[in-house]
Specification:
Layout (H helix, E strand, L loop, with lengths): L2 E5 L4 H12 L5 E4 L10 H6 L7 E4 L2 E4 L1 H11 L10 H18 L5 H9 L5 H26 L11 H15 L8 H11 L2 H4 L11
Parallel strand pairs: 1-2
Antiparallel strand pairs: 1-3, 3-4
């Protein structure tokens, strides 16, 4: 199967898919779309992803969008190594952790929202950072509790899961925007463990071909 990942180096959603692809040991070609200059609105790309978002994956004749859907598809088509636990309850916990990031935190902190805050509402940098912290902090508080209950070396147990795929880029974003992570020792511990995993570290934004 030939895989092409349309992404952008700093996109948290694309980053989590890169981690999943790397953990699965899958080779893929990357095509970058600079979100800051609007390349995602090129008509050719809109034909693939009408939302004008990344990531998008082309898999032979199929086109897939939305990071959580892509990771679920990867799990179903390439089940080894697994990114979800074997038991239904464990899978539900991991999916809940991933959704806290992908559905509750990240959408309120992505480039579209931050650009609107700055350009449409005139928010200055301090106000933008306060907005970011306002949504990261409660989400991380919930994740901290869940990791304390279910975590091991990683967010759930002792092997990487979809929860880690989502947590790693969100933690990097929090650090980038100077969110205080002192109240979240379990999250910091998991992020440090993930940074030593070759497949996860290779997906880091700063190592991508289009990185600044």
């Amino acid at each position: 199967m030939s895989l092409t990942l349309h992404d952008y180096w700093r996109s948290g959603a694309a980053w989590r898919v890169r981690i999943a692809l790397n953990l699965k040991g899958l080779e893929y070609r990357q095509i970058a779309h600079n979100l800051r200059t609007g390349e995602q609105r090129d008509p050719a790309y809109l034909a693939l992803n009408p939302q004008a978002l990344v990531p998008t994956i082309e898999a032979d004749d199929a086109v897939l969008t939305q990071s959580l859907a892509i990771m679920e598809w990867l799990e179903e088509t390439h089940p080894q190594p697994p990114l979800l636990p074997r038991d239904p309850l464990g899978r539900a916990h991991v999916r809940a952790m991933a959704a806290i990031v992908a559905c509750d935190i990240h959408p309120l902190n992505n480039l579209r929202v931050l650009s609107s805050l700055r350009d449409d509402l005139g928010a200055r940098e301090a106000a933008s950072q306060a907005w970011i912290a306002r949504w990261i902090a409660p989400g991380f508080a919930a994740l901290e509790t869940m990791i304390a209950r279910h975590g091991g070396m990683y967010a759930y147990g002792d092997t990487p899961t979809m929860a880690d795929c989502c947590l790693v880029p969100q933690t990097a974003s929090a650090l980038r925007f100077k969110v205080d992570l002192t109240p979240f020792p379990a999250i910091r511990r998991v992020a440090e463990t993930c940074a030593t995993h070759p497949a996860i570290s290779a997906a880091h934004a700063g190592l991508q071909p289009d990185a600044d």
